[in-house]
Design a protein that fits this description.
Layout: H1 20-28, E1 36-40, H2 50-65, E2 69-73, H3 81-97, H4 117-128, H5 131-144, H6 150-170, E3 176-180, H7 196-200, H8 207-212, E4 216-224, E5 227-234, H9 240-254
Parallel strand pairs: 1-2, 1-3
Antiparallel strand pairs: 3-5, 4-5
Helix pairs in contact: 1-9, 3-5, 3-6
Protein name: Amidase domain-containing protein
Pfam family, one: Amidase
GO molecular function, one term: catalytic activity
Length: about 260
């Protein structure tokens, strides 16, 4: 893992690093006495496949047998995380990738001396970005455009603040939050690319913590349809040690999983 302050990186946090190795070793002993696990009420709907929900519940039961306490918490704005993220992320994508114009950075296509700069930029971006990146650039450019910035990007950032407040409130009641990592197990390559929304739903449980900016980890907790199911553990910012303790305990309790062979 990478952790700690980097004096050459103005965005890194100049704070001590928790003893995550010690926390993982403590968790591996199988003692979670006094640890409170927050079960997010808003994640309890019908979004997860039955096999995923069952494996997650088995993982939760394994942790309670080690002494952990399960507490249901409400994070009411988590339901808005998916649309908020897919406005914020494409907007940042559009802004950051604007530099890749074939002039200073990256790929340069069509520069044979016969084309205007605008055509070189167009050819470069057409060749250099895949379909999903282009989709996000277009969405982000629209969300940041004049007359729409406040209505889309600005509103999404307000939702992000509310989600952060949900996390803050939840962590006043529990040590970590837990959920499935994804609503469904791995699907055949390319089977959902025709429906971007179905692809984005894979991020349903992981997006809130991404918007919050705290640490999270995924540990296999069982199998569904012969494929691994992930158990997500989310912790407060700068409290990675809590996450590692619970993750190590779950990993020790579950043991080795043997997924089916993929044809």
């Amino acid at each position: 893992m990478l952790a700690g302050h980097d004096p050459r990186d103005a965005t890194s946090i100049p704070q001590p690093v928790p003893d995550v190795v010690g926390a993982a070793r403590q968790g591996a002993t199988g003692d979670l006495t006094g640890v409170r696990l927050g079960l997010v009420r808003e994640f309890g709907g019908e979004g997860a496949e039955p096999g995923v929900a069952a494996a997650f519940r088995d993982g939760l039961d394994a942790l309670t047998k080690l002494g952990a306490e399960v507490v249901e918490v409400s994070c009411p704005h988590f339901q808005y995380a998916l649309p908020a993220y897919y406005l914020i992320a494409p907007s940042e994508c559009s802004s950051n990738l604007a530099r890749y114009d074939g002039v200073r950075y990256g790929l340069r296509v069509g520069d044979d001396g016969s084309k205007a700069l605008e055509e070189v930029m167009s050819l470069t971006r057409e060749a250099g970005f895949g379909p999903e990146v282009k989709r996000r650039v277009i969405i982000g450019t629209y969300a940041l455009s004049s007359g729409y910035y406040d209505a889309y990007y600005g509103q999404a950032q307000k939702v992000r603040t509310l989600i952060t407040q949900d996390f803050t409130s939840a962590f006043e009641q529990v040590d970590v939050l837990v959920s499935p990592t994804t609503p469904f197990v791995a699907f055949p390559l390319g089977s959902r690319t025709s429906d971007p929304y179905q692809m984005y739903l894979a991020d349903l449980y992981t997006i809130p913590v991404n918007l919050y900016g705290g640490p999270a980890i995924s540990v296999p907790c069982g199998l569904s349809e012969g494929l691994p199911v992930g158990f997500q553990i989310m912790a407060p910012t700068l409290a990675d040690d809590r996450m590692y303790r619970v993750a190590a305990a779950l990993e020790s309790a579950v043991g080795t999983l043997t997924p089916r062979e993929l044809s």
